[in-house]
Amino acid sequence: MSSSTFRTVPPAADVVIIGGGVMGASTAYHLAEAGVTDIVVVERGELGCGSSGKPIGGVRAQFSDPLNIELGNRSLRAYQDFPHRPGADIRLDTVGYLFLLTSERQAADFETCVSLQNSLDVPSRMIDPAEAQRLCPYIGTDGLVAAAYSPTDGHARPGLVVRGYADAAARAGVTFATHTAVTGIDTTGDRVTAVHTDRGRIACSTVICTAGAWSGRIGDMAGVNLPVRPVRRQLAFTAPLAPPAPRIPFTIDFSSTAYFHNSDDGLLFGLADPDQPDGFDTTWTPEWLELFRAVARHRAPALADMETVGGWAGLYEVTPDHNAMIGRSEELGNFLYATGFSGHGFLQAPAVGEVMRDLHLEREPCVDITPLSAGRFRTGAETRPEAHVV
C-alpha cells in the first residue's frame, strides 16, 4: 500500500498504534472491522520495514506451549481465509512443517508436544526418517531418529499480509503515518495522554505498542518495562534451480536451527547464529552462510554447495522466555502492547490482532493471554519457555 508521508500528524485520535508491521496492521484492521476507525498507525519507515520485511514467513501451529498452539492455529485459519477476509492474495503455500530430530530426548519431547497439539485440533504426527526423506528428498537420514510433521503448516509473504490488512484498514478510515518517528509519550497519573512524533503531537485515549524490536525504547518513554532484545537473523536465496526444486515442507534441523524451503524459483536457507550479539544492525553478511553450509554437508548434502544470490537480514524481538508479551500495562491502564514474539510474530499476527481489539474494547479475548503479561518478568511469576524456537 502506498501510504502517505505526513507533514503533520492528526492532532488527536482515539487509538495510536506505534509500529506499522504485521502486528500493527492486524491490530488496526481488527479494530476498524469492529467499528473503531479513529486510529493513527505511526511507523518510522515504510509499512512492514522492520521484522515483517522478511521475504517469506513460516506459519505453523507446532509449538510446545498450549497458548502458542492456539494462537498459531487460529492464525492459520485466518491466513487460509485471507482472500475473503480482508481480501488479499498472500501466496500461502500449505506445504507443512517438518522438524528433523537427532536424539531420543528430542523425539520424546516432540512426541509429548504432538499429543498436546492433537488435543487442540492440530493434525501433527511423528514420522520415521524414511517418510521424512520422502517428504523432503534433500535430506539424508544418517543420524536422524525421527521427525515431526504437520501438513497444515506452511509459509506466506509477510509484505502481502501487511498490505492486505493495511489497505482494508485504510478503506475503513484508519490513518497510516509513515516516515514518522515517535519521540515521546505524555502520561498523567495512570494514563497515557499523548504521543509525540517528529511531525507533531497526537492526543489519544489509548496507545498500542506493536513496535517489535524497538518496543523496549517505546516502553521506556512511557515508563513501562518491555524487556525485548533485538537480535539479527539472516537468510539467503539460491540461484534459480533447473530442474525446479521439488515442493518440500518448511524443513528444520532442530539441533542446529538450520532450515530451508521453496522460494520462487529456488530455495531459501536460514539458520540462527548462536553467537550473534544483540543489536539493531541489519547488514547482511554472506560469511554467515558457512554456518548453514556446515550443517547442510551432513544433513542435506545437495544444498551445501548450491549457488546463492543474495539474502536478507532482519531483527528478532527476543524476550527472556522466547514468548510474546501481550496485554495491558499494570501502570498505565490505556497502554496496551503486543511485542517480543521471538520469531513467531508473523504466524500469530491474525489471532493477536483479534486479542488486541478485544483488550481495547474490554471484551474477553478468544484465548486467555494473562500468562503473557510483561509483568511476569518483574514479579517472578511462572514463565513459560517455548521449546519449538527456530
Describe the structure.
This protein has ten helices and 18 strands. By secondary structure, the chain is α/β, with parallel strands linked by helices. The strands form three sheets. Strands 1, 2, 8, 9, 10, 11, 17 and 18 form an eight-stranded mixed β-sheet that branches. An eight-stranded mixed β-sheet has the order 5-6-4-13-14-15-12-16. The protein has a two-stranded antiparallel sheet with strand order 3-7. The chain starts with 11 loop residues before the first strand and ends in an 11-residue tail after the last helix. The model has no long low-confidence stretch (mean pLDDT 95).
What tags apply to this protein structure?
390 residues, alpha/beta, eight-stranded mixed β-sheet, 10 helices, 18 strands, 26% strand
